[in-house]
């Protein structure tokens, strides 16, 4: 599969006709279309030099990016690396100068780039990349190169765009069944520009290419002034098809050529990214929102019933008990009031995971706010990943605060130990997996391998900034006066009665994780597609709504199951509240496994290990995020109900 973008206008689902849906639609449209381009516009006069840059080679079959010059393409006299931000390096971007020479608004035809004679090694390298369907990515004025493809959709013609062009293709000669490899050695570039009628300066608004495979021919001996017979503007012989393709074989001669055409466009510079960002599947996203809202409404109804009817009746009845005999006959959640705030097993570990969850929650929330405001648009390559890393580091302050506050509520005294564990547990697990995956990428000689300099920068962010901030937050949280529990804890633990099968801890935890996952799984499909199929994801308005729904769903399902648990006289709610909503991470990983076998074309073992390694990290982060939401919801709920009854 290749990334596709439609030029045709978006159509909004006619089913969302209510006023609320209309307001949401306007909100989504605004968040979807408004973005900050990330770079200042640049004006070009006629004849100005345009700098074309090459980026990594990518393949959805291997998920291993490679540097453009890892293949024996034509090279400039000196290769110059562009400065990349942290996110670009982690994504495997390697931006370098290209040998192409463009002059603004000056068309060029049949420019000869270079001539290459393949040996056994280079022919094998090209064949491997063609077989793995690698695509060449280029950049002009911060715009990525796209291949336009016309097709008929619902009776009307439209244009879809694919990021980058294939290195080559596989096929057979007519009358032969032997598989051959062919090189795309002629590129017909189209640069679209918007011209200012007053100054005559122009701004680039589009960068397209049509690749061809052509076996070039020429007369006489090869020299710098050689004119091709297969592509010659003087004889008006241009390349318009791949009728005589260039085969990739040892000792074959390949001549690389290109055309450049300039076309004026009505698209303004501020809207030039709309072609890349316009989505054609709004109906599916609206279905995702409606599906999630149905889950929230169902859970909200249950919570309302519990809070307004059942709890109100229980509290009234408990407060009206007058005699000792009546108090001894009480049943339900009040019966465990002396044990409900008992110190849980492995309370230190719970504090660490709650603090880590607060760190994840803060990072995701702030990232989405910036993304909706347009600061993390795709035009700012690597901006999203860089922002998430930096926010994670600085959110260590809140992680230390949350973990130490909970630790102090548990009557702990060694806050430094909790801060240390908070600073190292989650990052250490993620780093261990990341280092193993990075070693695998190094073994494949891929540009996706993180260089030692970047690795040092990541370690510095962790030890130099995140760890100290966790300790600062831990100190602040521990020194703040603790909040007393609403009821006192008995010295002797109460024996928990035998539970019904549906209140079994494992069963209730697994059931609780289904609904939060169900609220996000449709949007999860688009996120996985953007990551693993090399597509842009820029519908942060939809994503923010789904994120809010996820928070509400996690809180409500945990509160409902916590109430049922307390009513069955089981007071061990601390860890179960965390695991109930956190178990949605298990379903996320299972869905990622399903997605791998049904949507991806990965066949190599290393690529599969990369996929499941990264999805394991994502699932782990989702676990601490959703688990923390459920825990705080349950903590608020239990403190609320037990502070509302009279306890003798």
Fold blueprint:
Layout: H1 19-33, E1 49-50, E2 52-58, H2 86-91, E3 96-97, E4 102-103, E5 108-117, H3 120-131, E6 135-140, E7 143-144, E8 146-153, E9 156-163, E10 165-166, E11 168-171, E12 180-183, E13 186-195, E14 202-212, E15 246-247, E16 253-264, H4 274-277, H5 282-320, H6 324-328, H7 347-372, H8 383-394, H9 396-409, H10 415-443, H11 452-479, H12 505-532, H13 540-567, H14 574-582, H15 584-599, H16 605-642
Parallel strand pairs: 13-16
Antiparallel strand pairs: 1-4, 2-3, 2-6, 5-16, 6-7, 6-10, 8-9, 11-12, 12-15, 13-14
Helix pairs in contact: 5-12, 5-13, 7-8, 7-9, 7-10, 7-13, 7-16, 8-11, 9-10, 9-11, 10-11, 10-16, 12-13, 12-14, 12-15, 13-14, 13-16, 14-16, 15-16
């Amino acid at each position: 599969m290749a990334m596709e973008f439609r030029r045709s206008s978006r159509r909004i689902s006619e089913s969302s006709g209510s006023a609320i849906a209309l307001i949401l639609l306007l909100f989504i449209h605004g968040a979807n279309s408004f973005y900050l381009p990330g770079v200042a516009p640049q004006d070009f006069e006629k004849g100005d030099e345009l700098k074309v840059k090459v980026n990594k080679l990518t393949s959805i079959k291997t998920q291993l990016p490679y540097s453009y010059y890892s293949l024996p393409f034509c090279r400039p006299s000196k290769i110059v690396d562009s400065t990349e931000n942290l996110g670009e390096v982690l994504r495997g971007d390697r931006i370098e100068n290209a040998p192409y020479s463009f002059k603004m608004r000056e068309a060029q035809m049949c420019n000869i780039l270079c001539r290459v004679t393949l040996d056994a090694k280079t022919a094998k390298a090209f064949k491997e990349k063609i077989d793995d369907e690698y695509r060449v990515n280029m950049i002009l004025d911060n715009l990525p190169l796209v291949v336009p493809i016309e097709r008929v959709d619902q009776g009307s013609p439209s244009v879809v765009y694919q990021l980058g062009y294939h290195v080559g293709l596989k096929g057979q000669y007519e009358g032969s069944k032997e598989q051959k490899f062919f090189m795309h050695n002629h590129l017909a570039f189209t640069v679209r520009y918007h011209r200012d009628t007053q100054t005559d300066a122009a701004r680039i608004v589009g960068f397209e290419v049509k690749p061809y495979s052509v076996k070039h021919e020429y007369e006489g001996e090869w020299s710098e002034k050689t004119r091709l017979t297969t592509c010659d503007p003087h004889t008006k012989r241009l390349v318009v098809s791949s009728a005589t393709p260039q085969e990739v074989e040892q000792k074959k001669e390949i001549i690389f050529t290109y055309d450049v055409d300039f076309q004026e466009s009505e698209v303004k510079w501020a809207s030039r990214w709309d072609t890349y960002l316009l989505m054609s599947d709004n109906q599916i996203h609206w279905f995702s929102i409606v599906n999630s809202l149905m889950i929230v409404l169902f859970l909200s109804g249950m919570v309302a019933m519990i809070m307004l009817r059942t709890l109100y009746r229980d509290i009234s009845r408990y407060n009206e008990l007058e005699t000792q005999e009546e108090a001894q006959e009480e049943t339900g959640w009040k019966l465990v009031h002396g044990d409900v705030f008992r110190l849980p097993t492995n309370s230190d570990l719970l504090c660490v995971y709650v603090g880590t969850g607060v760190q994840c929650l803060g990072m995701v929330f702030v990232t989405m706010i910036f993304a909706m405001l347009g600061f993390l648009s795709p035009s700012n390559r690597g901006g999203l990943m860089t922002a998430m890393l930096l926010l994670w580091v600085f959110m260590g302050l809140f992680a230390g605060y949350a973990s130490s506050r909970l630790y102090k509520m548990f009557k702990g005294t060694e806050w430094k130990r909790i801060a240390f564990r908070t600073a190292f547990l989650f990052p250490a697990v993620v780093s261990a997996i990341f280092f193993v995956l990075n070693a695998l990428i190094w073994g494949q000689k891929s540009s996706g391998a993180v260089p030692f300099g970047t690795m040092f920068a990541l370690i510095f962010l962790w030890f130099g900034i995140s760890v100290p901030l966790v300790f600062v937050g831990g100190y602040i949280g521990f020194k703040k006066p603790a909040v007393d529990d609403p009821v006192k804890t008995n010295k002797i633990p109460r024996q928990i009665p035998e539970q019904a099968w549906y209140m079994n801890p494992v069963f209730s935890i697994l059931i609780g994780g289904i609904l939060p996952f169900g609220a996000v799984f449709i949007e999860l499909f688009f996120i996985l597609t953007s990551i693993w199929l090399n597509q842009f994801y820029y519908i942060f308005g939809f994503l923010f709504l789904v994120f809010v729904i996820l928070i509400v769903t996690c809180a409500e399902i945990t509160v409902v199951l916590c109430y049922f648990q307390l009513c069955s006289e089981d007071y061990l709610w601390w860890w179960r509240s965390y695991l109930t909503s956190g178990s949605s991470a298990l379903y996320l990983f299972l869905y990622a496994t399903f997605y791998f076998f049904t949507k991806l074309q990965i066949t190599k073992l290393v690529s599969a290990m990369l996929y499941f390694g990264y999805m394991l990290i994502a699932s782990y982060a989702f676990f601490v995020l959703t688990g923390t939401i459920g825990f705080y919801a349950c903590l608020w709920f239990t403190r609320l109900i037990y502070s509302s009854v009279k306890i003798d």
